[in-house]
């Protein structure tokens, strides 16, 4: 089930939040400040990362590629800096579960009876870019996955957004980032690997203010590789913070281990 693997992988790595209840929509109206230098912009963006202990949410993910469109329900639970737990289901039937910690990625899919239990190599292979726990969590919180450094990045104002780009783009890894001027959260980002004919872009909807923190509203993800195109739309039904959560996860007996391409 390629759509399921891609949906989960993109959700894990490039998912956006959309909370319909318990939050106040923050409408942009502040002008970008031309006096802010790159150091101030980066520091303010880092400070915008929300502070919480646990997060629980139910999310609707609509996946569409060149052949099909599929909608799945995803349950998400996070213990900040420690654990990310995801369950994907259709009509109440569990399709897959993912458990992510800083050291390990565990995954199983009930339809194909397959599993993976190892490091971030599986998710990195599915998306074609190196991942780790910090990057995964950053995307889920509307933060940059790139290691922003004032000495290596430059900024300019584009359409009233702070646009950040490396002074020198790495070989076969071209990326840019747009930050909102009101909350300094990610507005949009793109990553291209020209040698592999691969492009990934995402944009965030309005952010929700919940208990003093800002969480994205809706995420639109587009990816292309060769002649294949994929879009993912992620909408959060609700976000609950600092609630009691568990991370129940057990790979069923008899499942076949996923072998990574060498």
Task: State the name of the first-level CATH class.
Answer: Mainly Beta
Net shape? globular
Mean pLDDT score, rounded?
A: 83
SSE string, helices as H and strands as E = HEHEEEEEEHHEEEEEEEEEE
The total count of strands amounts to: 17
Distance between the amino and carboxyl termini = 21 Å
Q: What order do the strands of the largest sheet run in, or round the barrel if closed? A: 8-9-10-11-12-15-16-2-3-4-5-6-7-17
The count of helical stretches stands at 4
Specify the CATH homologous superfamily. Lipoprotein localisation LolA/LolB/LppX
Largest sheet descriptor: 14 strands, mixed
What is the domain tally?
1
What is the CATH topology? outer membrane lipoprotein receptor (LolB), chain A
Structural class: mainly beta
Report the C-alpha radius of gyration, rounded.
18 Å
Characterize the structure shown.
- This protein is mostly beta strands and 262 residues long.
- The chain has one domain: Clam (outer membrane lipoprotein receptor (LolB), chain A).
- It is built from four helices and 17 strands.
- Strands 8-9-10-11-12-15-16-2-3-4-5-6-7-17 form a 14-stranded mixed beta sheet, with helices on one face. A three-stranded antiparallel beta sheet has the order 1-13-14, with no helix packed on it.
- The radius of gyration is 18 Å and the shape is globular.
- The N terminus is likely disordered.
């Amino acid at each position: 089930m390629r759509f399921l693997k891609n949906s989960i992988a993109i959700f894990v790595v490039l998912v956006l939040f959309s909370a319909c209840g318990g939050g106040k929509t923050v409408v942009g109206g502040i002008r970008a400040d031309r006096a802010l230098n790159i150091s101030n912009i980066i520091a303010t963006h880092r400070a915008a990362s929300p502070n919480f202990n646990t997060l629980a949410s139910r999310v609707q993910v609509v996946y569409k590629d060149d052949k099909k469109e599929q909608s799945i329900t995803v349950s998400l639970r996070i213990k900040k800096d420690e654990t990310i737990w995801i369950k994907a289901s259709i009509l109440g039937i569990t399709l897959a579960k993912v458990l992510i910690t800083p050291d390990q990625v565990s995954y199983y899919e009930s339809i194909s009876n397959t599993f993976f239990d190892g490091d971030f190599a599986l998710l990195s292979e599915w998306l074609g870019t190196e991942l780790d726990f910090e990057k995964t969590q950053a995307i889920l919180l509307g933060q940059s996955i790139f290691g922003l450094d004032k000495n290596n990045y430059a900024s300019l104002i584009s359409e009233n957004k702070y646009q950040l780009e490396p002074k020198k783009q790495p070989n076969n890894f071209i990326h840019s980032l747009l930050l909102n001027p009101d909350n300094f959260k990610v507005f949009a980002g793109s990553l291209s690997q020209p040698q592999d004919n691969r492009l990934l872009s995402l944009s965030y909807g309005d952010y929700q203010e919940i208990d003093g923190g800002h969480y994205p509203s809706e995420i639109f993800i587009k990816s292309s590789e060769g002649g294949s195109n994929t879009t993912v739309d992620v909408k959060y039904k609700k976000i609950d913070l600092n609630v009691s959560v568990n991370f129940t996860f057990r790979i069923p007996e008899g499942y076949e281990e996923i072998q990574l391409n060498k």
